[in-house]
Design a protein that fits this description.
The protein has helices at residues 3-21, 35-43, 48-61, 83-86, 105-123, 129-151, 158-186; strands at residues 66-68, 74-76, 89-94, 100-104. By secondary structure, the chain is mainly alpha-helical. It has one domain (31-183). The chain crosses the membrane at residues 39-61, 101-119, 131-152, 158-182.
Length: 191
């Protein structure tokens, strides 16, 4: 082989290697490795996790709204039955000041939701179809949370109200960030 042929073959090999690194196969299409999980991660709103955790606690361990007293009379509670569970200690750490810092179960759920809200806002910077579907699913999640908050007694807590507010913020911030990212990507400038 002459020198030019060797250079052409090595150049083609380098181009194929670069395409594989960028996620393309030799035919120019996307490779399947990881694309399914990436699509699920893009569509799935992460705030479903703390909302589902709260739902498991509310349905499984919440208790009932009505109880019977010592005379057999039915008494309806004014507070959500899950409040006792949410205010239970989750973690306690001694502080240098001499007091103990206590994180309750409700606070832990809210902290988890704050972390997932941050990740959701980071995910919303893309402008693909998965992001649009993610916003639609996030809106459905907010509507479900609103219905639960208004109609079910174990969901009428400040912890769940904060979770519901975070789902609304996810929808609003996601749409705004996506629009700003799309304007930047398509080069729409001020006139």
């Amino acid at each position: 082989m002459d020198r030019e042929t060797k250079l052409a073959i090595s150049g083609a090999a380098i181009a194929r290697r670069d395409q594989k690194r960028r996620g393309h196969d030799a035919s120019g299409g996307r490779t399947r490795k990881g694309s399914f999980m990436r699509a699920i991660f893009g569509i799935f709103p992460l705030l479903v996790i703390p909302v589902a955790l709260y739902n498991l606690l509310a349905v499984g361990f919440g208790g009932s709204v009505e109880t019977a007293n010592e005379f057999g009379e039915i008494i309806r509670s004014d507070a959500a039955p899950i409040l006792g569970l949410l205010s239970d200690r989750f973690i306690g750490l001694p502080m240098i000041s001499g007091v103990e810092w206590v994180l309750t179960k409700g606070d832990a759920i809210v902290l988890l939701a704050v972390i997932f809200l941050f990740l959701e806002i980071l995910k919303s910077t893309s402008t693909g179809t998965a992001t649009i579907i993610n916003h639609a699913v996030s809106m459905i999640l907010f509507i479900v949370c609103l219905i639960q908050f208004l109609l079910l007694p174990n969901f009428a807590t400040s912890t769940f109200f904060i979770l519901m507010s975070m789902t609304l913020l996810d929808v609003l911030a996601g749409v705004v960030v996506t629009i700003v990212s799309a304007r930047r990507d398509f080069g729409v400038g001020d006139i």
